[in-house]
Amino acid sequence: MSGLRYVYAVCRPFGTTLPAQLTGVAGVPPKQLVHHGLVAVVGHVPEEDFAEEPLRAHLEDLDWLTATARAHQNVIDALTVVTSPLPLRLATVFRDDSGVRTMMEQREELFLRTLDRLEGRVEWGVKVYADITESSAAQEARPTDVKAATGRDYLRQRRSRRRAHEEKWEHAEEFARRLHETLSGYAEDTRIHAPQNAALSRASGRNVLNAAYLVPRSESEEFVELVDRHKDDAPGLRVELTGPWAAYSFSGFGEEDS
Amino acid sequence: MTVVERREVALVDLLDRLLAGGVVITGDLTLRIADVDLVRIDLNALISSVNEQVPSPWREL
């Protein structure tokens, strides 16, 4: 058998086959590789794209990265329907099946422990954006558009504009902090991601909260309603919900912790 | 659970999870694409390639 092995996730045996039409990275349908009480979901990928050197080069190509990330997610999504998978980091590639088996063997206990922790849980993403510019804050701080009569007036106006601007930011951060607190109360675990760069997200406004929440699948409806209830609490701020995701942000054991 | 309205997942949300989340496995058996590299790709290569392809409207601000 030629080719390398791309591993998407490790799961407990889920007792069904994957949908026949499901394809993953490199357009290849994923297969299940069973080892003891674990299943690795694996795709054969060509060496010319996934060996170390070509992979490194590909990962700096946005189009390739996009296609690969979407294909990876496609498989994880399908798995999420039938089980609670433990997703692996993008582009985890082994030389052959026996490499995958050895990896599962070595980490068996840790995988089982983590799978237990994630069983029946999903991840929800919540982001808060604040669309605040100095001029929008200024307009509210200055009800009538009076021209500054004197230098002193001008300075006073500038000061009040700046203060209004700062207050808006403080308000946005306070809102994000309180929302995170509230949602954390309903989640089993939380992770704060780095704020998203606007050039990548193409979203308007500054990302003041980018968090992930681990929630039992059975309580997800309540969690979504909770986000919904709070999202209109703050004029000028935007709350976005994504999910349900496989528990990507909570699969973490880094190798150093293992 | 009710099906929540599903829009296409934004690439940036996906990368938050695929490049910074998921189990990291390193060792002789894997090809050594360190997670550090992936994080750097996230920050530098992506943003610069986005900026090359699409002149950023935020630049002028």
How would you summarize this macromolecular structure in one to three sentences?
Chain A is of the alpha+beta class and 258 residues long. Chain A has 9 helices and 9 strands.
What are the defining features of this structure?
heterodimer; A: 258 residues; alpha+beta; Alpha-Beta Plaits; five-stranded antiparallel β-sheet; four-stranded antiparallel β-sheet; 9 strands; 43% helix; elongated; B: 61 residues; mainly alpha; 44% helix; disordered N terminus; disordered C terminus
Structural class by helix and strand composition of chain B: mainly alpha
Uncertain runs of chain B with pLDDT below 50, 5 residues or more?
1-5, 54-61
Q: Biggest interface: chains and residue counts?
A: A-B, 65 and 40 residues
CATH architecture of the largest domain in chain A: 2-Layer Sandwich
The oligomeric state is: heterodimer
Q: Can you summarize the main beta sheet of chain A?
A: 5 strands, antiparallel
Q: What best-fitting shape of chain A do the alpha-carbon axes yield?
A: elongated
Radius of gyration of chain A (Å): 24 Å
Mean of residue pLDDT values of chain A: 88
Structure notes:
- The complex is a heterodimer of chains A (258) and B (61).
- Helix content of chain A is 43%, strand content 23%.
- With 258 residues, chain A is an alpha+beta fold.
- Chain A folds into 2 domains: 4-119, no CATH class; 122-250, 2-Layer Sandwich (Alpha-Beta Plaits), CATH 3.30.70.
- In chain A, strands 1, 2, 3, 4 and 5 form a 5-stranded antiparallel beta sheet that branches. A 4-stranded antiparallel beta sheet of chain A has the order 7-8-6-9, with helices on one face.
- Chain A is elongated and about 80 Å long.
- The two termini of chain A are 31 Å apart.
- Chain B is an all-alpha fold and 61 residues long.
- Chain B has one domain.
- Chain B has helices spanning 11-18, 35-53.
- The chains are: A alpha+beta (258), B mainly alpha (61).
- The interface between A and B is large, with 65 and 40 residues.
